[in-house]
Amino acid sequence: MNSLTEQRIVVRRGCPEAGIKPYWEEYQLQMAPDERVLDGLLTIQRELDSGLAFRASCETGQCGADAMIINNNPQLACKTLIKDLGEPEKIILEPLHGYPVKKDLIVDLTAVEKTARTILQEGTVKNHEPPTEQQVDRMREAAICNLCGCCDSACPANWANNQFSGPASLIKLYRYLPLIEPLQRKVLEELNSPAAVWGCETEYNCLEVCPREINVTELISRVKEFLIKSRSVEEMERN
Amino acid sequence: MKTRINNHDILIVGGGATGLRAALAATNKAAVDVGIISKVPILRSPTAAARGGIAAVLNRTSQDSPKNHAADTVRAGAGLSDVKAVNQLCQRIPEEINWLARRGLPFTHENNNIAQRPFAGHKKSSGKPAQRSCFAGDRTGQLLLHTLYDHCLNQPIKFYEETPAVQLIRYKERIRGVIGWDIAAGEPLIFLADNTLLATGGAGQLYEFTTNPLPSTGDGQALAVEAGYPLKDPEFFQFHPTALARSGILITGAARSAGGILRNKHQQRFMQQYDPENLDTAERDRISQAITSEIAAGRGDTADNCVWLDLTGLSEKFIRQQLPEVYTTCRDYLKINPARQQIPVKPAAHYWMGGLPTNLAGQVLNRQKQPVPGLWAAGETACLSIHGANRLGTNSLAETLVMGKTSGEKMVGRTSHTELPTKDLENQLQTALKKLCFSNTATNKVDCWRQQLQTAFGKQMGIVREAEGLNGLLAEIDQLTRKVEKQKTDSLQADRRYRFDLIRLLELKNMLRLGRLAGRAALARQESRGSHYRADHPEQNDIRYQAHSIIGTAAQQNKIFYDRVKTE
After folding, report:
1. Does the structure show a pLDDT above 90 at B138?
2. A130: nearest CB among B98, B247, B444
3. Which residues pair with B169 in a beta bridge?
4. Which of A192, B78, B88, B342 is the 20 to 30 Å CA partner of B395?
5. How far apart are CA B388 and CA B87, in angstroms?
6. Best CA proximity match to B78, nearest among B289, B249, B267, B220
7. Residue A62 DSSP symbol
8. Smallest CA–CA distance from B97 into chain A, residue
9. Residue A194: what pLDDT?
10. Residues of A in contact with B499 (CB under 8 A)
11. B284 an active-site residue?
């Protein structure tokens, strides 16, 4: 069952900072159907091309390091078996869309952290009282996000709207919502904009690609609800 | 090449749970400025791969207290645990759990309190399983890592990601920082600090079959050894009994605590023969050794050399809620449902009990047991002898938190007044850079050499060891070391951005250095204790070996010094 077959792996390479324009490189190797795409990359590195650049760490889908586009779908190379891909003519690997490419399959994901940074700086996280069981359960839905970047890469609103933070940052934000003082004005302003939640056009691509199976679109909608509710509370108080 | 110099009060090497906790403790205590350098992006740190939980006694009763937790830890340690260090851990960890909960680590709850589940080896006064493990599903490590990191973002902590440490900077017997390598730019960076904490995790990548992520190559330990400081108890590696047979993906011990049963190919619950009292929740060394015996006796699977973990007594709902990662791992990698089919498992290298000797504050100790000024170590990098010869499940995250916090606080306020002469620094930089000068042939072969080392190490330093095999391993390590050294050149390669092959060469050199010392210590310890089982010396010998192996100073490479454990 686990016999080796010839696989053609085609990788989008390049390094803009060093002036190396994008190009395709093809590798041929023997792989078993139970092997992961990551195993193929590690074999290439070991036997064919030690200079191929990609990130990998836990190799088991926990850390999110090896997110990339595999045959047009953003996913983790360590969670994608060869047999999961059907029997494509070749396996095409590209860096995640929507992020600056550093080299080969490596992208710069630091922008994703920006929102989390703002929220935690401005939101004065309460640390005197531990959250309740109900709050914790809601937080955990989002906290299992490991910021791999697949959702941002699959989001059409993110491609079209330069201002939009993308779904990953919003998931990070949702995770800390219960810990933020309910009416922190600055946080609300930050959220209440086309650059944040209102940039989401509810396309559902994010939840289809999420390797952690987070219901991304639903959680973003809950943030929208939260904002509408807090706005009406504010208006009531003003009147 | 003009090399940038970054100055910090405290420099932390490694951005896993230990390093982040230390950074938060330091900035909370005083207005200090902290730099963290990490070989991988912080969120890809191996901490993310930790599953099971964190041991802590949250509710003291007549049946359970930190004293019971300490007694269990010492019992598992098979005579090599340091009682003071264990007590410090067990007393301080409950407060850490509450600290994390208040900062938004979403621990699994029950009746509006943090839920706690049993874990192998943790017992109440009555001998029944104690519920001490605090957890967040079976994704505790990832949630811990992200929570700590998010809170670091609004502190005066500067991150240098994808920047491994190449060499310690030493001046007048004091550690003054490290020389690092910026992977993205392909350039060296100098980090100067009054205090440097090594928190680079373990070295499970020495093994072919391991649960440890790719970055776990013992970098911090190797740098300290290179600088002339010893390793303590490096022969003790723990094997986790249940990793998936082909890939080594960890199936958490919480699965056995919840009722999982290990079976051989005749469907027998074989732990009944090896440990009728504790059965499938016996300590890890005993279960791993039992599985190895079953496989050796031909009662395992012949093709994959494994036994089976049977979770079919648990409901699918329970598994999905309490062990979600077990469920998805089985579904995605094996295409099976663990509530209906048994999981093929075998032991895999998991945790290194040995490491850099430290005192209770986290200061690294030299051969004379004196603190090295400016050098600290914590977490798996250190050997404080909490775990002794065998670690109890859920105690490693506990140690990263308690010792991360302790060392972070203790580093504050210790300043150095000596200036480091520019000339001296320049010389040290040149020595460090030579470590990255390799021919193209070397970078092409590095992964094959790494694989050779892993195969040999797995075979001879596995669950069962004996003198002949260990001698063969040492010969192979020497041969590989010579091969690597031969490939050095005089200059750095021209194309240096994101050259992970250069980093893997550094890692290989680190692992060869550590592997040799671990192999020597294993050969010298002619007894069996905890995770160290010698087929040619199957008995525990307290008279000769209730002692820590201290090995590896530059001057006395071959000599092992035994530091006897004080028993009252």
Report:
1. no
2. B98
3. B177
4. B342
5. 13
6. B289
7. S
8. A130
9. 85
10. 51
11. yes
Rounded Cα distance between B240 and B285, Å, is: 8
Domain locations along chain B: 240-348, 422-564
Residue of B nearest to A135 (CA): B106
Interface of A with B in 148-207 (CB under 8 A): 172, 175-176, 178-179
What six digits make up the tokens of A159?
A: 């491609």
Phi, psi of A108 (to 5 degrees): -90, 110
Task: Report whether pLDDT(B327) > 60.
Answer: yes
Supply the pLDDT for residue B1. 59
User: Inter-chain contact A143–B43, Cβ cutoff 8 Å?
Assistant: no
Ranges of each domain in chain A: 5-107, 112-238
pLDDT band at B433; cut points 50, 70, 90: very high
Q: What is the dihedral of CA A51, A55, A58, A64, to 10 degrees?
A: -160
Q: Do B501 and A50 touch (CB under 8 A)?
A: yes
Q: Which of B541, B448, B427 is nearest to B501 (CA)?
A: B448
Which of A63, A75, A171 should one mutate to test binding to chain B, selecting the residue with the greatest count of B CBs within 10 A? A63
d(CA B410, CA B412): 5
Binding-face residues of A in 61-80 toward B, CB within 8 A: 61-65, 79
A84 exposure class (CB count in 10 Å sphere: 0-12, 13-18, 19+): middle
Report pTM.
0.96
Residue B502 is which amino acid?
Answer: L
Task: State the fold for domain B422-564.
Answer: Methane Monooxygenase Hydroxylase; Chain G, domain 1 (1.20.58)
- Locate A29 and state its tokens: 């190797």
Mean pLDDT of all residues in B88-111: 95
Among candidate residues B176, B263, B284, B516, the one labeled active-site is B284
* Superfamily name and number for A5-107: Beta-grasp domain (3.10.20.30)
Contacts of B195 (CB under 8 A, 6+ apart): B9, B10, B11, B374, B375, B376, B411, B414
Q: What is the per-residue pLDDT for A172?
A: 85
The reported pLDDT for the residue numbered A193 is: 83
Q: Strand, coil or helix: what is A117?
A: helix
The domain made up of A112-238 is a member of CATH 3.40.50.2000: no
In tens, the pLDDT along B337-350 reads 999 999 999 999 99
Per CATH, the number for B240-348 is 3.90.700.10
Q: Who's near B301: CB < 8 A, 6+ residues apart? A: B245, B265, B307, B308, B344
Q: In B130-278, where does DSSP find H-type helix?
A: 140-152, 219-226, 254-257, 271-274
Render pLDDT for B12-39 as a digit per residue (tens, 0 to 9): 999 999 999 999 999 999 999 999 999 9
Contact A74, A105 (CB under 8 A): no
Q: How many angstroms separate the CA atoms of B526 and B523, rounded?
A: 7
Check residue B528 and give its pLDDT: 97
The ipTM is 0.94
Query: Would you call B44 and A139 a contact, using CB atoms and an 8 Å cutoff?
Result: no
For Cα atoms A154, A155, A156, give the angle at the middle one, nearest 5 degrees: 115
Nearest residue to B202 via CA among B255, B166, B239 = B239
Chain-centroid distance, C-alpha A234: 33
